[in-house]
Amino acid sequence: MPTRESILTLVRSGLSYPQIGERLGVTPGLAYLIATGLPADGGDAPGWETDKRPGALSTSTQHLSNPKSIVPQRDEQTDAWIRERALADPALRAAWAAHGVAPSALAEDDDDIIDVIGHDHGQARHLQLQLQTLPGASSGGRPDDLRRRAEAFALLRAKLKAHEHAEEEVFWPLVRDRLPKGGDLAQRAEQQEHEAEGLLAQIESADPATPEFDELVRTLTSALRKHVAFEDTVLAELRERVDEAAREEAGRRFKAARSANSASIAATGKAG
Length: 272
Known about the structure:
Elements lengths: L3 H9 L4 H8 L3 H9 L25 H4 L10 H12 L2 H9 L14 H21 L9 H36 L3 H24 L5 H31 L2 H25 L4
Helix pairs in contact: 1-3, 2-3, 7-8, 7-10, 7-11, 8-9, 8-11, 9-10
């Protein structure tokens, strides 16, 4: 343990308490306490006469007592250790095995097409989150992780296909008919959906156990986020310009079209 005199010698040499602490292997606050007998946080300080003590500072010493801020960072070694511990725990393994990627089935009590489409967006966001959080091949994903990612993608693919079919049949014709520049809005949306369809086809043909799949999923996530944001602005304008009765009638037709397409996908046993 450093002595009072050894610390005061370093003080007289011009070193600061943080420098002294680093040199002697103690905290700056402890170095200050040894040298002056005073806590660096200002507690139990006798008053103005402390300035006369050798080594005492006339300015605030609070910074000497605060521990160094450490921002924890993730690293591969820590992630691997946590994963191994989780896999060795029977309860955690059982919970993970029972975990499904499908979004919860929520009742659609409202027929308003704005709420119906909002419901679909929420389901898509859930599946996108599964694709983002489950580790892929490029981040050390295990076979079960890759299987779940493939399952999440298949569900997302099917939901998007049914959703887009209903939009083409009901939503975008309503936008063209009822909104100023509705044709331009619909054309822009169709272009975005065409680009997303190309990405979906590429992902569908990619191997989930490859980095290529991971990169395509990242690109798709970004594209879908932008498309949903665009549709949300259209929905907001639709709410202002189309009365509730018309929106509810459109919502019922939208759900019917979506259900018919979902049934067709289920019957053929594939999402594309």
